[in-house]
Amino acid sequence: MPLNYNKWDRLQLSDDSDIEEHPNVDKKSMVRALQNKIHEEREMRKVKIVNLGAQIACNNVLYPRIQAIQASLESGDTDKPRTVYFSSLVEQLERNPSKECPPGNNPDKLEQTYDGMLLSLLRQVGDAAKVAVKEAGVSDDQREDRIGKALAEGIKEHVVRLKETIDNDSKELEQEQNEQKKHITSEDMRDGFANKYVPPKPEPAPLPIAAKLDNLDKPNKPKTKTEFEVINTPREPVAAEEDEFLDDDIANLTPSLEAFSKIPLKGFEQSFRFIQEHRDVVVPGASDALLGAAFKAQYDNKPKYAKQCVHQSLLLQYGDKLGVNGLSLFFKKMISGDKRAEAVFMDDVDKTYAHLEGRVKRSQEEEKKGGRETIMLASENEGDITFNVPSGPPPDELVMGEGMEDMDVEEVRKALQLRWDIFQTLPENLRTALQTEELAQVNKVLGDMEVAEAEEILERLDMAGIIPFSESGVRDETPAGRAAAGLPPI
Predict the structure, then answer these.
(1) What is the pLDDT of residues 47-80, one digit of tens each?
(2) CA distance 22 to 407
(3) How many domains does the chain have?
(4) Is 481 helix (H, G, I), strand (E, B) or coil?
(5) What is the Cα–Cα distance from 110 to 113, expressed in whole angstroms?
(6) Residue 176 near residue 52 (C-beta atoms within 8 A)
(7) Does 18 reside within a domain?
(8) Which of 173, 319, 395, 404 is 20 to 30 Å from 121 by CA-CA measure?
(9) Domain check: are 275 and 323 in the same one?
(10) Which of 412, 439, 409, 434 shows the shortest CA–CA distance to 423?
(11) Residues 48 and 133 grouped into a single domain
């Protein structure tokens, strides 16, 4: 049977080489803007399809009920006058409304139920009929009959309009669905050829800290000073704050370890189930990483989470110490409610946490006496850090380059204005340093700031494109802007 490759015609592809760079906007920003536009249109279409479907479903429930009311008013088959029949319908909906409503609506709010919507329509038709008869100056003996006719005509008009609304919404929904099917997206991907063989999962790799600890244990290398101890552990943990060799990895938890660390104290059954489902928790270096996370949490004033990390680290260490099937033996005792074993374990947790707490307090005191942490910019290559310092707000006239006539000038102006506004909010000494376009001058100002303040300012500089760390932002390439930047005219 021949294969059908026509579906690949629905792939929405773009060639970045076809996009010419705008004098005021760099190419990467334009490509990103185009991608964002495509994704926004897709999301808006999804929302519209859902809303149209919900509106059609709601109207399809109301339409036959309004049709039935119209038929009763026009035929006059009821044993009551039309005005009395109409009033009784309104009274019934007011006194005993049903809570049936469209999906997602609140049944306790009358206006969101089907009966509430119908009641609103009947009140509107009734008020309009009374006003029309009053303005016509009908005599009292003919008033009831004329109101009845006006009610029938008003309901009929709404029946026609509702039918038109349903038809129009159905056509629009079909158009949006057809447009959605024109292109293949990730949601359309399905499994094709597959077999039933599932290869066994590979053994989880040790954490990076495990290899570093092994290197530290070699006789040729000096051993790291132990900063906090764990009772009944086969190996003493390493202090996270003093060994710079381990700083990058000791508190860097994997997603599974991070979830494991958040299990509450004495949650032995929950911990055991988690370990059974996540083999990458019981790997070399996991217990040390949890102790490092405990140290960092205590340092960040999160004592509850710090103690949980200590608790989970000791769980792994006890299982490792008990040898083969050590975890099963340990959890069997804990889950069965062995009070003596639990008391020994929790006493170890309390002592280890108390030692860690004291060590963190001493470390914080030592830090206050010493220097403080600062942020500095560094660049291995000269072109990695560039300066796009604005000299003023965007000029009145922005020149659009050849091939870029379709660009929205006002959007470009907004980007340039944003850069200038952010630059104006910076401290005066930092603005002066940026205007020199010398990294050393900028670092000198950043070094005098607190870390949080410096980080926040760097985020603003990156957002405005004044110092883009990954890519360039919007540049002022107009004659005035190029002259201010010391560039030759185009």
Answers:
(1) 899 899 999 999 999 999 999 888 888 876 666 7
(2) 8
(3) 3
(4) helix
(5) 5
(6) yes
(7) no
(8) 173
(9) yes
(10) 434
(11) yes
